[in-house]
From TrEMBL:
Ranges in coiled-coil conformation: none
Protein name per UniProt: (S)-3-amino-2-methylpropionate transaminase
One Pfam assignment: Aminotran_3
Reactions the enzyme catalyzes: (S)-3-amino-2-methylpropanoate + 2-oxoglutarate = 2-methyl-3-oxopropanoate + L-glutamate; 4-aminobutanoate + 2-oxoglutarate = succinate semialdehyde + L-glutamate
Enzyme class: transferase
InterPro entries, per the entry: Aminotrans_3, Aminotrans_3_PPA_site, Class-III_PLP-dep_AT, PyrdxlP-dep_Trfase, PyrdxlP-dep_Trfase_major, PyrdxlP-dep_Trfase_small
Keyword set includes Transferase: yes
Family: Belongs to the class-III pyridoxal-phosphate-dependent aminotransferase family.
C-alpha cells in the first residue's frame, strides 16, 4: 500500500483552481454532457495516488473526499491495481448468471465472515450488483419477496441513490426526485435521531420514529426499514446511543426486515468493517458499495439466508453485477484491511484528525459539532452562539480550501456540514494540514 509513491503526498498548487486546461476541458464538456450531471469542482483529474489527485494543469490536490468514500484504501492502491490487472488478463466478463467464477464467491465469503449476525453455521448470503442504488433496490426487492409486504420505511435526512425507487426514498426532493415523478409509492419517511438538534436520547428518538411509522405506515404493511447507521449525505449524523438497537428490536418483533445501508459507512471506513457493529445491531440485510473495490464499481446485498433464499432463480442479478475485475479488486481490498491493519488506521484518523477538529471547535464558535467515527468525520457550521445553520460559510470554506489545494465536500440537508472521507492511509501530516487550512479559512471569515 505504501510502495513506490511517485506522487508526493502533499499539495502543490501551480495555477489558479481550476487551471486553464481544466477550463478548456470544461468548455468542451459543457457542449456534450448535460448540466444534470454536475461536478462540484470542475478540476479535471489526470492521475492520482494515495491521498493526492493530480489535475491536468499539474496541481496536486489533497483529496479528503475520496470520490465520496470510494477510495477508502487510497487512489491507485498498488495491490488493488495488481489484482485488477491480473484479472483483466484472465477474464473480464462471462455474466455470473450464465457461467460463474471464483472471485464473486470469495467476495460473498468475506462479507459472510464480517457482517454482525452471520455465523459459520448460518452464514449470510450475498448478491453482487454495480452501484449503491442497485444495492438498495435489490435489498428492498428481497425484503418484499420475503415478507410479502409492500411498505418501505426510511428516515429523515436519508440518502439512498438516484434511481427511480431510491430517489423517492431520499429526504431531499431537490435535486434528486424533483420533476422525475411519479415517484415510487409505499415509502414512509419517519423522524431520525439527530442528537445536536433534537435533544432526544436514543430510546426517546426511537419511540418517536416507531410511533410515526405505526401511525402512517402500519407495522404489518412494512417489508423493511432502511437505515444508514451513520447518515452520509444527511451530514454524518451519528444517532444517539440505543436508537438503532431499539429500531432493530421493533423490526424483529414485527417481522420487518432491518436493512443497514452501509454504502458509505461500510468497508472499514469507521474503524470496523461495518459501522453497524459499533451500535450493537445485527442487521437482517447489509448493503455495501462505494469503498468495497478500491474505486471499481461493485455493490453487495448481504443478508440472512432465509431472507435471501426467498427469491426464485433468475429473480436477482444483472449483466454486469459482480464483474470479475471488480471482485478481484475487492478481494485485494479485503486482504489489505487485514494485512495493513486498516481498521486501526481508521481509529488513528479519528483520534488525530478528529482530535484536531475538536480543538478547532474550541476556538471557532461557528463549529457547532464535530461528529462521526473513524475516517468518516464532519463538522456542522452555524451562526456563532445559535444553532442556525450556515451553508454559506460551508461554501466559503470549501472554496478557499480548493484554492489552497484541499478538496472538501459539503453534506447535510441544508449543506450545513463539511464531511471528511480521507483514505485510511491519510497521514497525520495531511490531517494537520487540513486542520490548519480550516483554521485559517474560518479565521479569515471571522468565524
Ligand atoms: C452513495 C450512496 C448510495 C448510492 O450509491 P450509488 O453507487 O451512487 O448508486 C446509497 N446509499 C448511501 C448511504 C450512499 O452514501
Amino acid at each position: 500500500m505504501t510502495a513506490d509513491i511517485e506522487i508526493a503526498q502533499e499539495p502543490r498548487v501551480v495555477t489558479e483552481i481550476p487551471g486553464p486546461r481544466s477550463r478548456e476541458l470544461h468548455a468542451r464538456r459543457r457542449a456534450v454532457v448535460p448540466p444534470g450531471v454536475h461536478s462540484v469542482l470542475p478540476v479535471y483529474i489526470e492521475r492520482a495516488h494515495g491521498s493526492i489527485v493530480v489535475d491536468v494543469d499539474g496541481n496536486h490536490i489533497v483529496d479528503v473526499c475520496g470520490g465520496i468514500g470510494v477510495t477508502t484504501i487510497g487512489h491507485t492502491d498498488d495491490a488493488v491495481v495488481a489484482a485488477a490487472t491480473a484479472q483483466l488478463q484472465k477474464v473480464t466478463h462471462t455474466l455470473f448468471t450464465m457461467t460463474p467464477y471464483e472471485p464473486y464467491v470469495r467476495v460473498a465469503e468475506y462479507l459472510a465472515q464480517h457482517v454482525p449476525g452471520s455465523t459459520a453455521a448460518a452464514p449470510y448470503k450475498t448478491l453482487l450488483m454495480n452501484s449503491g442504488a442497485e444495492a438498495v433496490e435489490n435489498g428492498v426487492k428481497i425484503a418484499r419477496k420475503h415478507t410479502g409486504r409492500p411498505g418501505i420505511a426510511v428516515l429523515e435526512h436519508a440518502y439512498h441513490g438516484r434511481t427511480l425507487l431510491t430517489s423517492s426514498m431520499n429526504h431531499k426532493a431537490a435535486p434528486y426526485a424533483l420533476g422525475y415523478g411519479p415517484r415510487a409509492g409505499d415509502i414512509y419517511k419517519a423522524p431520525n435521531s439527530y442528537p445536536l438538534r433534537d435533544g432526544l436520547s436514543g430510546p426517546e428518538a426511537a419511540a418517536r420514529t416507531i410511533a410515526h411509522l405505526e401511525k402512517f405506515a402500519g407495522a404489518e404493511d412494512l417489508a423493511c426499514l432502511v437505515v444508514e447507521p451513520i447518515q452520509g449525505e444527511g451530514g454524518f449524523i451519528v444517532p444517539a446511543d440505543g436508537y438503532l438497537p431499539a429500531l432493530a428490536e421493533w423490526c424483529r418483533a414485527n417481522g420487518i426486515v432491518f436493512i443497514a445501508d452501509e454504502v458509505q459507512s461500510g468497508m472499514a471506513r469507521t474503524g470496523t468493517v461495518f459501522a453497524i457493529e459499533q451500535f450493537g445491531v445485527e442487521p437482517d440485510i447489509v448493503l455495501s458499495a462505494k469503498g468495497i473495490a478500491g474505486g471499481l464499481p461493485l455493490a453487495g446485498i448481504t443478508g440472512r439466508s432465509e431472507i435471501m433464499d426467498a427469491s426464485q432463480p433468475g429473480g436477482l442479478g444483472g449483466t454486469f453485477g459482480g464483474n470479475p475485475v471488480s471482485c478481484a479488486a475487492a478481494v485485494a481490498v479485503f486482504e489489505q484491511i487485514e494485512s495493513e491493519g486498516l481498521l486501526a488506521e481508521a481509529k488513528r484518523i479519528e483520534e488525530v484528525f478528529g482530535g484536531g477538529l475538536r480543538e478547532l471547535a474550541e476556538r471557532h464558535p461557528a463549529i457547532a459539532e464535530v461528529r462521526g467515527r473513524g475516517a468518516m468525520l464532519a463538522i456542522e457550521l452555524v451562526k456563532p452562539g445559535t444553532l442556525e445553520r450556515d451553508p454559506e460559510l460551508v461554501n466559503r470554506v470549501i472554496a478557499e480550501a480548493a484554492r489552497r489545494g484541499v478538496l472538501l465536500l459539503s453534506a447535510g440537508i441544508h449543506g450545513e456540514a463539511i464531511r471528511f472521507l480521507p483514505s485510511l492511509q491519510f497521514t497525520d501530516e495531511l490531517a494537520a494540514l487540513v486542520v490548519r487550512v480550516l483554521d485559517e479559512t474560518l479565521t479569515a471569515a471571522g468565524a
